[in-house]
Design brief:
Shape: globular
Radius of gyration: 15 Å
Structural class: mainly alpha
Strand content: under 5%
Helix content: over 70%
Oligomer: single chain
Number of strands: 0
Largest sheet: none
Length: 162
């Protein structure tokens, strides 16, 4: 059985979530760093899936994910929350670009694309330590729910939105 690119993206994303939760929850740095490496694979798979919508914009996913993962990894190694917060700016922009590409490609329902754009741009504001906690929680929550919704869509349907 051949697994299509949409399901591959969903499966790799699930692997990322699993490693990230295990690494953070168990406080095992190598697992957290491995999760960041898997996130780069997620970005590559998403690039391949969404490049037909707009290759140049899809290409932006790669450096945004790479820089975000690098900064987050440095923050994890140094146990510095401020450095890790900086990575959120890149991940927020990643989500915003991903949302745009989803809207252009019709790979997922438009609601997921819009939610990723709103959540991603909101997450970009988390770089500031002065961001009010309720606003930060909403921005992060919208982005997390949108990513989770996209993963479920990719896994369940394995195809583009009709």
């Amino acid at each position: 059985m051949v697994i299509g690119p949409a399901r591959v993206a969903g499966l790799v994303w699930i692997a990322y979530f699993g490693l990230s939760i295990a690494g953070g929850g168990l406080k095992i740095l190598p697992l957290s760093l491995a999760a960041n490496a898997v996130y780069l694979v997620v970005a590559v798979v998403l690039f391949q899936l969404l490049a037909p919508a707009d290759r140049l914009i899809a290409l932006a996913l790669l450096p945004l994910a790479a820089v975000g993962c690098l900064i987050q990894s440095i923050g994890m190694i140094q146990d510095d929350r401020d450095i890790q917060r900086t990575a959120l700016a890149f991940f927020g922009l990643f989500d915003a670009v991903l949302g745009y590409l989803l809207l252009r490609s019709r790979v997922a329902p438009p609601l997921i694309g819009y939610a990723l754009m709103v959540g991603g741009l909101g997450s970009f504001t988390l770089i500031s330590p002065q961001t009010p906690a309720p606003l930060a929680a909403v921005a992060f929550g919208v982005a997390a729910l949108a990513e989770g919704g996209l993963v479920l869509w990719l896994l369940v349907t394995g195809q583009a939105f009709p």
